[in-house]
Amino acid sequence: MKIIDCRNMACPAPVVTTKRALEEAGGETVQVLVDPGAPRENVIRFAENRGFAVSEVEADNGFALTITSPGSAPVEPVRTVAGKGGKTVMLVASDRLGDGPEELGRLLMKNFIITLLDLAELPDRMLFVNTGVLLTTEGSEVLEALQSLGNRGVEVLSCGVCLDFFHRKEKLVAGSVTNMFTIAESLLGAGSVVRL
């Protein structure tokens, strides 16, 4: 049985680490050490939603979750439905996710973009507009993740007008500059649009 220690990890690291361990285990049982609260709940929900059985015991100020595959064959990574009829375009219109406190919103956006690296299906194109362009320029905490997404075939495009407005065009690091025509064409021609 493989044992992984996800204690003292910030969200979404416990789920991402568990996902990788389960894929590598090839159907073998995995034990995950997690902190109480959201880390425990998120890992249990993730595993159960993918058909795994989860048992738990309290251990060392946290929990030991034993995750077992229901069958002998490894569980395939979850993928979205194929054949959706066009490209998936993600419109990132802010450097924050949600409408709550700014600090929380920035943390959520950072975690969301980093989590994309562990998904089986990726957007075909990510369009950054308004304060979203701050994520693609010098000083952003997600530059490495965005560059990795670009290396995996995701087009990362930032609005030129927005970059000019924030005086960031010369500081663009991830992806390339685009214009409103391409943005509009991408959105209207997409099979699905995800707006953040």
Description:
The chain has helices at residues 13-25, 38-49, 102-116, 143-151, 160-165, 180-189; strands at 2-5, 30-34, 53-59, 62-68, 88-92, 125-128, 155-159, 176-178, 192-195. With 196 residues, the protein is of the alpha/beta class. It has 2 domains: 2-68, Translation Initiation Factor IF3 (2-Layer Sandwich); 88-195, DsrEFH-like (Hypothetical Protein Ychn, Chain: A), CATH 3.40.1260. The strands form 2 sheets. A 5-stranded parallel beta sheet has the order 8-7-6-5-9. A 4-stranded mixed beta sheet has the order 1-2-4-3, covered by helices on one side. Helix 1 (13-25) runs parallel beside helix 2 (38-49). Belongs to the sulfur carrier protein TusA family.
Blueprint (SSEs and pairs):
Layout: E1 2-5, H1 13-25, E2 30-34, H2 38-49, E3 53-59, E4 62-68, E5 88-92, H3 102-116, E6 125-128, H4 143-151, E7 155-159, H5 160-165, E8 176-178, H6 180-189, E9 192-195
Parallel strand pairs: 1-2, 5-6, 5-9, 6-7, 7-8
Antiparallel strand pairs: 2-4, 3-4
Largest sheet: 5 strands, parallel
Strand order of the largest sheet: 8-7-6-5-9
Radius of gyration based on Cα positions? 19 Å
Shape: elongated
CATH architecture of the largest domain: 3-Layer(aba) Sandwich
Give the topology string: H per helix, E per strand.
EHEHEEEHEHEHEHE
Q: The CATH topology of the largest domain is what?
A: Hypothetical Protein Ychn, Chain: A
Q: Count structural domains.
A: 2
